[in-house]
Amino acid sequence: MSRRSRIRDTAGVVAASAAVLVAVQGSSAGAGGDESRAAERVTVCVGTRPTGSPPDPEVALDRVLGYVQKRGETRYASVFTGLSVDDDPRTADVYRIPSKAFDADVCAHAEKGIRLRLHDTDVTARRLEALVDSTGDRMDRWEGKFDLREVGPDPSGFVFFGVDDPAKADLILKRELGPFWAKHIRVEYAASASPL
User: 3-state SS of the chain: helix, strand, coil percent to 5?
Assistant: First the structure.
């Protein structure tokens, strides 16, 4: 059976040379009131690095996102979880296992006016993708129990499962995948399978 996947909108990030770091306690955008994320620690840095000419916040954000994505997938793959773009063209959310080196690197490259919200997680993008790949390779694993229609990583640190019966699938998936993955999966109704 072919692998199905749901990919959420993500992008890359670049940071600034003399950025300001501020630690904030509270829920992240998109946390959906999940108790496991209620006490999430968020560090915010605002770039001060000079921007290109003319100063265009969307272009500057794209450059910053590209930098963060590249660094996260290479040098900092052991801590990088993912990133997403806010509605504000000057803000991006970066998810990572806490790392002073990663934070300093990306914040040092943020351009003036670009704000990065650095969210704490305890899982890497590679680990999320490994679960997606192993699930995609065995889509029929739960045949007769529930219909798995979509599976894909979310940059904030979980794997999305789209199924026909969320209540049933949630119990089965959390039991079979174990305690670590129980907090890193989101099970929702999906009307039909979506192609990659």
Answer: 30, 25, 40
Which residues make beta-bridge pairs with 151?
Answer: 161
Which of 90, 92, 96 has the alpha carbon at shortest distance from 73?
96
Cβ pair 12, 83 in contact under 8 A: yes
- Interatomic CA distance for residues 101 and 162, integer angstroms: 36
Exposure of 86 in the CB half-sphere (CA atoms within 13 A):
17
| Phi, psi for residue 34 in degrees, rounded to 5 | -65, 125
Beta-carbon contacts of residue 138 (< 8 Å; ≥ 6 apart): none
> Residues near 150 by Cβ (< 8 Å), separated by ≥ 6?
4, 5, 6, 160, 161, 162, 190, 193, 194
Among 69, 76, 59, CA closest to 12: 69
Q: What are 24's strand-pairing partners? A: 42
Give dist(CA 93, CA 117) in Å, integer. 5
Distance CA 110, CA 45 (A): 8
34-69, pLDDT tens digit by residue? 444 445 789 999 998 888 776 788 889 999 999 999
Q: Per residue in 86-125, pLDDT tens?
A: 788 899 999 999 999 999 999 999 999 899 999 999 999 9
